[in-house]
Amino acid sequence: MNKTFFVTGSAGFIGSNLVLKLLKENENIHIIGIDNMNDYYDVSIKEYRLNKIKEKIKKTTNKWSFYYGNISDKKLIDKIFEEYKPDIVVNLAAQAGVRYSISNPDAYIESNLIGFYNILEACRHSYDDGNKGVEHLVYASSSSVYGSNKKVPYSTDDKVDNPVSLYAATKKSNELMAHAYSKLYNIPSTGLRFFTVYGPAGRPDMAYFGFTNKLRNNETIKIFNYGNCKRDFTYIDDIVEGVSRVTKKAPERKTGEDGLPVPPYAVYNIGNSHPENLLEFVDILQQELISSGVLPEDYDFEAHKELVPMQPGDVPVTYADTSALERDFGFKPSTSLRDGLRKFAKWYKEFYMGD
Q1: Per the structure, how many domains does the chain have?
Q2: What is the distance between the alpha carbons of residues 178 and 308, in angstroms, rounded to a whole number?
Q3: Which spans in 161-232 are helix H?
Q4: How many whole angstroms from its chain centre is CA 166?
Q5: CA–CA dist 239, 89 (Å, integer)
């Protein structure tokens, strides 16, 4: 009740779904959103998500303010913090994607490093002049930080100093920067390592979405590492349930024996803890696409797939150890891949084929 949330990347896949969940489950809250609406992927999907928020807000006692802007714009971020004094900050704005970071590194430095630095600085100065300031900073990290770790499942206790992409390096940097700011300025912060998020109105650069577009256009899909990749696919509703729970419980501020703050800092995995083989995943996807009418019943799936070697920056397996999330928040993602892909296929049919 009566809290002010600042959600960056609020037209994004996770951001928009989080805003919808917060609006649905709370009363008299004010959510400030920001998104640069860039054209890394189809902007009409971002607009669709924003429209869903506008429809939702009409049915609640909550307030919604949206800024078209970039978190790398320090003046704008400072202005938002000054004007609204957010209680809870959820930083989901980032340039996403492993492969894109190879061809467009500038976007990652601007958004993921400079942008995140601006958020941290604004949180730090929210306590100036004795103000109550930010109660909790929650930010998106990624399973990519685990690089090519051989030990599975991936635990937040693992050492993650060997990123295999610039994207992963920026996400690990976010965790390090947040730790430093938590220690120096006693900012309660929680990082969330997301594992392969999917679902309706998701990101078209993700495999399940790209595969669907190609299959529908009668093109061949490339399945990397000859289909031997495994991914811990996590349905969007499970992700936002986890984020929502985490926002409510900030790491505790404590003083160490040296009289200085013990950093109120935590990092959790949010994943399904059930890695799926890519070939199996694609098989379930095409079954659900046929069942929802996106593909014809007699679709020859075998003729449209090609097994190819691994891509630079990719890893063979992702697998989340979510025991800490279960212990501290009593939550474990549980949506099955089939259920999740069925919901995606139905949305896709409606969005692209007008049914």
Answers
A1: 1
A2: 38
A3: 166-185, 207-216
A4: 17
A5: 17
**Catalytically annotated residue among 117, 167, 181, 185:** 167
Q: Return the axis-axis angle of helices 166-185 and 116-125, rounded to nearest 10°.
A: 10
**DSSP 3-state assignment of 312?**
coil
Quote the CA–CA distance of 109 and 118 in Å, as a whole number.
12
Q: Pick the range with the lowest mean pLDDT from 147-151, 262-266, 336-340.
A: 147-151
Sign of CA dihedral 103, 104, 109, 115: negative
**Domain with 27 in it: what CATH number?**
3.40.50.720
Distance CA(215)–CA(300), nearest Å, equals: 10
Tell me, yes or no, if 167 is annotated catalytic: yes
> Which tokens belong to 167?
């994207």
In a domain, 341, yes or no: no
Residue 287 predicted with pLDDT over 80 = yes
Residue 298 within any structural domain of the chain: no
Q: How many whole angstroms separate alpha carbon 278 and alpha carbon 324?
A: 27
**Which structural domain range is residue 68 located in?**
4-196+233-273+318-334
132 assigned to some structural domain: yes
pLDDT at residue 260 in the model:
83
The answer to whether the predicted template modeling score (pTM) of the entire model surpasses 0.90 is yes
End-to-end CA distance of the chain: 38
The DSSP output letter for 109 is I
**Which among 332, 233, 228, 306 has a CA at the least distance from the CA of 274?**
233
Say if 239 falls within a structural domain: yes
Distance CA 5, CA 134 (A): 10
